[in-house]
Amino acid sequence: xxxxxxxxxxxxxxxxxxGVNLTIQPGETLALIGANGAGxxxxxxxxxxxxxxxxxxxxxGFDLVGLSVPGRARAGIALxxxxxxxxxxxxxRENLMMGANVGRAGPWTLDRVCALFPILEEFxxxxxxxxxxxxxxxxxxxxxxMANPKLLLLDEVSLGLAPIVAQEVLNALQSLRGESAxxxxxxxxxxxxxxxxxxQFTCLLEGRVTLSGRAAGADLDAIGRAYFGEETV
Length: 233
Prior knowledge:
4-stranded antiparallel sheet, alpha/beta
């Protein structure tokens, strides 16, 4: 279980998050939605330890606040970052194996990642700079999975991708739901896609939670108002 309580996050003197609370059960996917600048990436960065933060972040009962970034990775947090952040001097296989350097045991191996994204096996020896944006996104997600995380963070997985490619990536992620106790937090600009691939959602505005609920049957009008600041919890 992931339990976040009273989470504030800061970049120097700038406060990016204000008292964020949420709980996610094992095996669930949370869609994190909000406009640009709402604090979505800041929330993921706070979970990873990439910002200064206060409050509690408990993963399986263990409080992560105060742990270093490598310590949180070893505890089971993996991020597929916005912009993909490839290791440009490495090929596809080598980029994927970087995720395994965390040293966590688990079901995710190179063969299993390639079964999820078959094109990566075909291009295993290809420099990542020669891949399309969608193929690079598959590498970024696969690299995170290779860390065998308890908590998988996916930041803007469809950003800059053609709709058909974005849907292919999201369909692959959808196939993982309910398969294990891994928790997933998905940041996705397309609200319909985000809800379709999630068990619950949280909407952020200016670093604050404005609405939360179950994804199935969510009130899109209420989400629209929360998205633009017309409704608060």
